[in-house]
Each structure stands twice: as structure tokens, then as C-alpha cells.
UniProtKB/TrEMBL annotation:
It is found in: Secreted, Cell wall. One of its GO terms (biological process) is cell wall organization. The keyword Secreted applies. Keywords: Cell wall, Cell wall biogenesis/degradation, Hydrolase, Secreted. The keyword Cell membrane does not apply. This is Pectin acetylesterase. Its main location: secreted. Coiled coil: none annotated. Belongs to the pectinacetylesterase family. Hydrolyzes acetyl esters in homogalacturonan regions of pectin. In type I primary cell wall, galacturonic acid residues of pectin can be acetylated at the O-2 and O-3 positions. Decreasing the degree of acetylation of pectin gels in vitro alters their physical properties. Pfam families: PAE.
Length: 327
């Protein structure tokens, strides 16, 4: 793990004031001048108390991060497991700001201090990587909710000073600029080629956006959250509607984007590019005989048009359907 010592020059601190960090695995051979940047995920904090709690974990402080990190899935250096990107320079940016690398604010009440400096962290890491070869990169790709979470995200945008870093074309067009934190709104303004990888039944969104604990006080969804086999027909109808809403939000991207790619499968899961089992292996999820790794590679290298939308659950027998709680 590399700590970015120069981050203090621009105030790019983790929530607790510790230095931001990343892991770098050098590329080699034909991929030595290509770079792939993965933004670590891990949810958000949208009020002072949740951010103070987060600052005492690896999601808010580099003091608690693992010094060594396994690179799997799209970060693997094994050609048999990651055929298109195995020999690139692969970077994992550790996530410690609680605002998706977007904020620029500070909280200080005289007792507690929190740094909401995600945008500054991003800048500091990039500046650290430029002299290490990123500045001469031939290619680079950064990889790294729904209406029920709108209040959560509005609080997040306000708390962490994110709005000024949102797309200006988007924020000037919408009556509520904070909506530009949502992909279905800002995608229309992105000019960078973009690949969307997600499940139509994302478990994190299922558990925290579609059916958050506050909306299920009687525990009617408890069994369904633990096992799809326990879902009632009515609950399955709601999940199918959830999928339909997502596909409707992505329709214009699917139909009109000339340089975009997409892989939306009908599996219950989360973060499919980070695990070898779902990225590229025997038994990986597929759509039309195409793995996730194959779809991303076809899109990036312009081998084929790469837009895949799966049929609705339960039609896809290749799904692993990992529905355990995602925090």
C-alpha cells in the first residue's frame, strides 16, 4: 500500500485526517504503458454521526486498511483469469472519504474534525501516479440509487460539498441539481466512453434502497432478503418492477450511445468485476455466451458492439445469486 504523502499539500485527507492510499501492480510487456484505475466501493455516510463512526474503520481511515491487497477479477495479473487487462498497470484507489471521491468540505465543531475531501484525494493520487508512468499512458480506464434513497443522497451532497464538483451541464439543466449525483441523470452529459456493469437485482440496492429496514419494520421481507426461494409472488413482482425501472432509466443509453457498453444480467449480486468467480472463470455468469470480462474487453478494444441485457429472473442459469447481506 502506498500512502500519498503529498496529499497534505492540497488537503486530500481521509475522513479522520489520515493520508489517502492506493495499491499499484505494475504492468509488463505490451501492457506496460496502459493503466486501469479501480475505485474501491463501500457505501456512503450522509450525516456527522455516521461519518464519525466511519472514520474509525478502513472506509474512513488509512490507519485501518490492509497493507497488502489481493488483486482478483479485473485486477488479476493472470492471463487465464483476466485475458484483456492482465498485463496493464492496475491501481486500486482506497476509499476513505465516504462520498465516492467527490466531496470538498470540512467539519470542525471544536471537538471533532471530519475531512470530506474525496475530490482532493482523487487529485492527490493522480498527481502521485503521473510521474510513475500514468502521465505517459497509452490507454487508461477508471472502473470502479433509487428514489427511496433520494433524501440520503441530497444530505450526502450537501454535507460533503459535492454539488460544485457535479457536471455543470447537468446541474444547470435540472431544477434540483443534487439529482446529478444519480447515474440516470448525469449519463446524458458524459462524453467519455462508458461501460455500465450491474445486475438488474443489485443486492445492495435491494436491501438498502428498495427495501431498507425503515420500510420493513415488521420484517415481512426478512426471508426474501436471505433467500430468493423464500420470496412471495408479490415480492417477486416488486423485484421485477425494480428491474424494469432500472432498464427504463438506461433505455436511452442502450439505444442511443454509440461508444458505450453495457452488461446488465439478471443475477442477485454486487460488484461483479472484483471477484474472479463472476469476472472470468469456469461457471461465470454469461449473457448470450459472453462473460463479463469478454463483454468489457470487446467494448474497450472495439472488437464488437457490446451491449447485453439479460432476460428476467429466473431465466439465467449461469447466475450465482449471492444474496447474503451486503453492507
Amino acid at each position: 500500500m502506498t500512502l500519498v504523502s503529498d496529499a497534505s499539500n492540497n488537503g486530500g485527507f481521509c475522513l479522520d485526517g489520515s493520508l489517502p492510499a492506493y495499491h499499484l501492480h505494475r504492468g509488463f510487456g505490451a501492457g506496460a504503458s496502459n493503466w486501469l484505475l479501480q475505485f474501491e466501493g463501500g457505501g456512503w455516510c450522509n450525516d456527522i454521526q455516521s461519518c464519525l463512526d466511519r472514520a474509525k474503520t478502513k472506509r474512513g481511515s488509512s490507519l485501518y486498511m490492509n497493507k497488502l491487497e489481493d488483486f482478483n477479477g479485473i485486477l488479476s495479473n493472470d492471463a487465464s483469469l483476466n485475458p484483456d487487462f492482465y498485463n496493464w498497470n492496475r491501481v486500486k484507489l482506497r476509499y476513505c472519504d465516504g462520498g465516492s471521491f467527490s466531496g470538498d468540505a470540512k467539519f470542525d465543531n471544536g471537538t471533532s474534525v471530519l475531512y470530506f475531501r474525496g475530490q482532493k484525494i482523487w487529485e492527490a493520487i493522480i498527481l502521485d501516479l503521473l510521474p510513475k508512468g500514468l502521465g505517459k499512458a497509452d490507454k487508461g480506464r477508471d472502473i470502479t440509487l433509487n428514489y427511496t434513497m433520494r433524501t440520503f443522497f441530497e444530505n450526502l451532497v450537501s454535507l460533503q460539498g459535492i454539488e460544485k464538483n457535479l457536471d455543470k451541464n447537468c446541474t444547470s439543466f435540472l431544477d434540483n441539481p443534487k439529482l446529478c449525483m444519480f447515474p440516470q441523470y448525469f449519463l446524458n452529459y458524459m462524453t467519455t466512453p462508458f461501460f455500465i456493469l450491474n445486475t438488474a437485482y443489485d443486492v445492495y440496492q435491494f436491501h438498502h434502497a428498495l427495501v431498507p429496514p425503515s420500510a420493513d419494520m415488521n420484517g415481512d421481507w426478512k426471508g426474501c432478503k436471505l433467500s430468493i426461494a423464500s420470496c412471495t409472488p408479490q415480492q417477486l413482482d416488486i423485484l421485477q418492477g425494480f428491474r424494469g425501472d432500472m432498464l427504463a432509466a438506461l433505455r436511452s443509453f442502450f439505444m442511443d450511445s454509440t461508444n458505450g457498453g453495457m452488461f446488465i444480467n439478471s443475477c442477485f449480486g454486487h460488484c461483479q468485476s472484483e471477484t474472479q468467480e463472476t469476472w472470468f472463470s469456469l461457471g461465470s455468469p454469461i449473457i448470450q455466451d459472453k462473460t463479463i470480462a469478454g463483454a468489457v474487453g470487446d467494448w474497450y478494444f472495439s472488437r464488437n458492439i457490446s451491449k447485453f441485457i439479460d432476460c428476467a429472473y429466473p431465466c439465467d442459469a449461469s447466475c450465482h445469486n449471492i444474496i447474503a447481506q451486503v453492507s
